[in-house]
Design goal:
single chain; Growth Hormone, Chain: A; two-stranded antiparallel ribbon; globular; disordered N terminus
Length: 425
């Protein structure tokens, strides 16, 4: 088999990255970071308690944990484009339906519909597609992709402006229409695997038939091209590496799960102004770009596993700072440590997964791998709230989550290349 270098012009994989980036920025920003802008207006109009309204987010975590592995398997089999196309239609319709909320149970039902569409359309599918299209520059490509979510914090002030102008119901309709307009259209740009179009990852074009080596091996084919090992889901689940990666994700996810719900209440409780507390969340997403892009670039040069350990160290330092905040100036070192560490973990963990297990079952494994985050998403917010009720502050809760993150460091150090851990028959 012979290979030629990639053709001139923009490699199509970068168009896959660009389309996914915009979906993360606009649609993901609306339904994840930006949804907090709708919280108070909904509570004020509907007269529900904050606990009743917050339950919708817990239900979203439970539903996502159940169906994410299912969509992972589906994406690997039918491709990401169909899942994103259908998921965007569901999300757009769900946003419009939420605007017509007239009861709590209707709100729960439509919110679960939004979660269903989001699980199908945002995250697993885009990461799987980009991981397929890149090999040598995979970390960088995944870092640019994840920067879409990193920048999506800008959707919060946009939504605040819309709500002031059109009310929360009108704003839901507007964003539903935007989702229906750009979501399915951009999904058509996203394609599953370069081999289907006569390419190899990174744009290397083969002369002749592309073939993969048997599972569990990798072969150098010249011109710097490596056909990577491809493990099935069953083979991957029999490795210690997969479970160590999942466990490390669980250890660091408790803090994030609690942070997204209790960040503003905690900072306000220690004397931080509401305005500065709100800007802190935007600061987290913005500072995460340092890690998403900088560490992603380094991941194509240096050992990703060691870089992942460094991200855990940065996150843990930031967590301990956050747990002990008592003055506004302490927010700065928190943002400079936790933000880059949190941001770097996202592309690096995805790239490590693809390097160790291949991309044939990428979405399936990613869906199973995310179960660690689902466990923390269900338990951490409740635990933080309960400890506040008992202790009268959040200090103990966030200290516990910081201590748990310490265990991620030796867990990652225990990871070994998959070819050394596949059980021998």
């Amino acid at each position: 088999m012979t290979f030629t270098k990639k053709p001139r012009g923009i490699f199509y994989g970068w168009w896959v990255v660009a389309a996914s980036f915009v979906l993360f920025l606009v649609v993901g920003g609306t339904t994840f970071y930006g949804f907090t802008a709708f919280f108070n207006p909904i509570v004020a109009e509907m007269g529900w308690t904050r606990a009743q309204t917050s339950l919708a987010f817990s239900l979203r975590s439970i539903e996502g944990g159940i169906i994410r592995p299912i969509f992972g398997f589906l994406i690997d089999r039918v491709g990401p484009r169909k899942c994103i196309f259908g998921g965007m239609l569901v999300m757009g319709a769900a946003l419009i339906l939420i605007s017509r909320t007239d009861s709590l149970y209707y709100f729960y039902a439509t919110f679960l519909l939004l979660a269903l569409g989001s699980t199908a359309a945002l995250g697993l599918a885009e990461y799987a597609a980009v991981a397929n299209w890149f090999k040598r520059r995979r970390s960088l490509a995944l870092g640019i992709l994840s920067a879409g979510y990193g920048l999506s914090g800008i959707m919060t002030p946009v939504l605040v402006f819309l709500i002031h102008s059109h009310g929360w119901r009108g704003s839901m309709v507007i964003m539903g229409i935007v989702t229906l307009a750009i979501g399915p259209a951009l999904s058509l740009v996203i394609r599953h695997r370069p081999e289907q179009y006569g390419y190899l990852p990174d744009g290397d074009k083969p002369e002749g038939k592309v073939s993969l080596t048997p599972a569990g091996s990798g072969t150098q084919l010249g011109h710097g091209i490596v056909v990577e090992k491809e493990l099935s889901v069953q083979q991957s689940l029999r490795t210690r590496t997969f479970w160590l990666l999942m466990l490390s994700n669980l250890f660091v996810s408790f803090f994030l799960s609690a942070l997204t719900v209790h960040e503003m209440p905690y900072l306000i409780s220690v004397g931080i102004s509401e305005k500065l507390a709100a800007l802190t969340m935007l600061g987290i997403t913005t500072s995460s770009l340092i890690g998403r892009l900088g560490f992603a670039w380094l991941g194509d040069i240096y050992d990703k596993r060691r870089l992942l350990v460094l991200t855990c160290v940065l996150q843990t330092v930031g967590m301990f700072i956050f747990a002990n905040i008592h003055s506004p100036w302490m927010i700065i070192p928190f943002l400079l440590t936790y933000g880059p560490g949190y941001g770097a973990k996202i592309p690096l963990s995805s790239a490590i997964q693809a390097d160790y297990f291949g991309t044939k079952s990428f979405a399936s494994l990613r869906g199973l791998y995310a179960l660690g985050g689902t466990i923390s998403g269900i338990t951490a917010p409740f635990l933080a709230g309960w400890l506040y009720d008992v202790q009268g502050n959040y200090h103990l809760a966030f200290t516990i989550f910081a201590i748990l993150s310490l265990f991620a460091i030796p867990t990652i150090l225990a990871i070994r290349p998959v070819q050394d851990t596949i059980p021998q028959k």
